[in-house]
Amino acid sequence: MITYPSASIFPPLPVGGTPLSDLQKEVIALKKAKDALILAHNYQCEDIQGIADFVGDSLGLAYKAAEAKQSTIVFCGVHFMAETAKIVNPTRRVLLPDMAAGCSLADSCPAEKLAAAKAADPSLYVVAYINCSAAVKAISDVIVTSGNASKIVSRVPADRNILFVPDQNLGRWVSGKTGRAMQLWPGNCYAHVQFTPGALIRTKAAHPGALVVAHPECTEAVREMADMVCSTELMVGWCKQQTAQTIIITTESGMIHRLRKEVPGKTFVSAPTDRCSCNDCKFMKMNTLTKVRDCLRDGSPEILMDEKMRVAAEIPLRRMLEWSK
Ligand code: 13P
Ligand code: SF4
Known about the structure:
binds iron/sulfur cluster; 4-stranded parallel sheet; globular
């Protein structure tokens, strides 16, 4: 008999919140002393979210990074996110607690391969999901995030032939929403494609009446089973509006902490995969509070970038920030 992992269930948090740990207090003191802004993605662990100045999705974090006045930005997320901060705010020092925190999606689209595709078909208009390297951004026409992809794609001139990179799942979702045909790069997020319809069916059966929200990086078969498909930030607002008591969250597990904090009174179920019930992104979870403390103290690891590439990458990123308003 096959035994499947069970979903993790998170009841509402007790009122009052958890007190700060000594390490969190040390990080907060260092942050002030070093004139730093700490930005954290929704997938970071609870102790890092607890000391961040802003916690959000890729789009919100890009805006916050662009506006940062502090001399240092500590980016608690993955490499392409920290690069984005450097591209839009180059005079700031941008630190990433663990330089090895990459992204399978970003890795699936090397800049040389994209350059070759563009050379083979110069009519292409490249729409790049923000989960890509600075080198890929530098040769793209416009950037999108999961929070604004449809809005941005609908502004691409109708006579242009779109190549969407690197996430085929997000691309297919946007194409369906906008009715815009596009070529899709064959990349995906190793974590989100592990959610399966079978695992969702079992989880729904165990939680009658529960709603399902899924990230667009999930496969089409999983997205079709969801009551809502959206970015991590939009999940917070959508969950607030629902009358259902229990909501199944089909994305990385860190999202649960933000939801429990901001949507009190509801039970969140972290959708399991067929193989595990954790759904951690191994890259996001490379950052730890100790590494945040160490990078603030040491001023490294720092994101450094060739200025010519940065200037080229800023053009499609600024276009996105402008079109997204
Ligand atoms: P969001 O922009 O929706 O937070 O997604 C980022 C990401 O990497 C999802 O895997
Ligand atoms: Fe990349 Fe997937 Fe991790 Fe997001 S969850 S950072 S897309 S590997």
